[in-house]
Structure formats: C-alpha cells, structure tokens
Write a structure and sequence with these properties.
Nuclear Transport Factor 2, Chain: A, six-stranded mixed beta sheet
Length: about 130
C-alpha cells in the first residue's frame, strides 16, 4: 500500500499526536473550516474547531489526557481509529470515523462504547479477553 493510498491514516496519526499535547487549540491546524463532530450516542454535534477545542478544554479531567492508539485503518479519504483514553482516573475507549479532504479533517463520527458484563447464557462458548 502506497503512502498516497492511506493518506487519511497519516492525518489521523497527527490528530492523535496533537490531542496528546492537551493543547486542544493546536488540533485546529488539521481541522477544516467546515469541521463537524457527531456523537450519535448522545445526539450531539459540535461545529467548528473553536468549539471542538473549548469542549475538550472544558471537559472535567483529573489530570492530562493520555491516548493509547490500538489501531488506525484507512485509505485516501477515510480512516477509523480505536483509542483508549485516560486522565489517570477516568478511562474510556473511542471508536472514531474520520473523513479527510485536502489533508484536513472535515468530519468525525465518534462512538464511546461502555463495557458490560457478558451474558451468562453464552459462557460455555466464549473466553475472557485478557
């Protein structure tokens, strides 16, 4: 796979690198003017890089946010990442879909799945992930 065929992966790697600085305004350099972030689970939309930065800066945190990238896959214009996020107390996982145009992120659709106990009725078919 050539670098051109997975360009979106490179942009998303830079997104997470900038997020890890905890200077959320700095992320704006790779967000398009028409940037939109959707959180379907809570039915929320954030428009624009300034609101994105403010939302991240204002979110209650117990310390600096740290991001562990598990995987990023993509092509020229789209990528998906799976990332664990913590502030040292809170822990979450985000599955994030990115749309890229002209080396800028135009759209993010992000899901924050919550862990839940496995149903007992399939215990004989599964094993715990360690």
């Amino acid at each position: 796979m050539s670098a051109a065929s997975n360009h979106a992966v490179t942009v998303v790697q830079e997104f997470w690198r900038l997020m890890a600085t905890n200077d959320f305004s700095s992320v704006g350099v790779i967000l398009a003017e028409e940037f939109v972030l959707d959180w379907p689970q809570s039915n929320e939309r954030i428009r624009g890089k300034d609101r994105f930065a403010a939302m991240n800066a204002e979110y209650p945190a117990n310390g600096p946010w740290r991001f562990s990238i598990h995987r990023i896959v993509g092509n020229q214009t789209e990528a998906v990442s799976e990332v664990s996020i913590t502030d040292g107390v809170q822990q979450a996982k985000a599955v994030t879909f990115f749309t890229i145009a002209d080396s800028k992120i135009t759209r993010i659709v992000e899901y924050w799945p919550e862990p839940y106990p496995a149903p007992a009725n399939r215990k004989h078919l599964v094993e715990a992930i360690q």
